[in-house]
Write a structure and sequence with these properties.
By secondary structure, the chain is an alpha/beta fold. It is built from 13 helices and 11 strands. Strand 6, helix 5 (148-159) and strand 7 (168-171) form a beta-alpha-beta unit. The longest helix is centred in the first third of the chain and has 29 residues, at 2-30. It is globular.
Amino acid sequence: MLFRSTIRASAALLLLLPFAAACGSQAEAESPSDVSSVTLRVGATGWKTEEAVLKFAHLDDTPYNVRWSVFQGGDQQLQAVRAGALDLASSSEIPPVFAAADGEPNFKVVAVQRGATLNQEVVAPKGSKITDIAGLKGKKVGYVQNTTAHYFLYELLKRAGLKWSDIDAKPLLPNDGLAALNGGGIDAFASYGTSIITAHQQGATTIGSGKDILSGNFLWSARDSVLGSAAQRKAAADLIARITKAYAYVNDGRQSEFAEVVAKATHQPVAQAEKDFRDQQAQRPTAARGVGDDTIASQQKVADAFAQLGALKQKLNVSSFWSRKLNADLKKAL
C-alpha cells in the first residue's frame, strides 16, 4: 500500500515539475538567499521523530515550509527521492548505496547526523530455542533489505562463521517481519527502531546486535535540485542544524518530558521510553556535522561489504554521490 501511495505521489509530482521549476527559477532570480518561498519535502522513518523534537524544542517555526512524510525505512525514502517525491531523506549509510547503484543517482549525501546504534538487533520469537547467531544455520531469517539490518545481519553471520547462504534469508518490511515472527513464518528477524521495541514487548529475545558493528553515521541525502538552489541549500542546512539544537535542548534536563512524547508515538511505557532515550543519547548524542573524508570512507566500507556479499553487481565508488556544498551553510547554521 505504501509503495503504491509513493508511486501515486510521484506521478502527481511529475505533472507539477514544469510549474515548480518555473517558480523555483523565478524565486532564485529574485533573491538567491530568500527561503520564504521554499518548501522542503522531508522523509522520516518509523514516526516523525525529527518533527516531534523540533516542536518540543519550539524550533519548528521555520521561515520556510516543511512537509514531513513517514516511511518504514530509509530505503523507501531514497526511492521517493529518486522518484521526485522527496527533497531530503534521512537514512543509515546503506540505502544511498543501493539507490546510487541502481542507475544514475539524482541526489547527493550532504550531511551526517551522528546517532545511537541501539535497537538494531536480530531477535527470536518468544519460546524459541535459538539463543545466538550460530543457531540460525538452516533457519528462515527475515531482514529489512538494503538497510542497516541487511548489513549487520551479514556481519554477524560472518563473525559466527556462517555464510549468507547458510540461512534462508527472507527480505521483509518491518511490520511484515513482525507479523511473520509472531506467526511462525520465520525463525528470527533482523530489524531496527520501533519494530524491535515492539518485538520485545511481544516477548522476543535478542540473539545478535548491530550496536558495535554500525558506525552511528546517519546520512542526509538531498536531491540535486536542492543543491542547485541557494535558497533551498540554506533552508536544508538550517533544518538539519535545528534538529541538532533541538536534541541539545532535550538533553539539557528535559529527557523525562520528551519521553512522554516518544511513549505516545511508539506505544510503550513512559519509563521504558525514557530509559531508551537516555541510553541512546548516552551512547552517542544526536548531532549533525558536515561531509568529511572519514564519513565517505565509512560508507565505502559498507559498500565494499555488500559487493563481497554479491548484493551489488559491481564495486561502487561512493564518493561519486557525496557533496560538500552544504558544509559552509551547515557550519554557519550550527
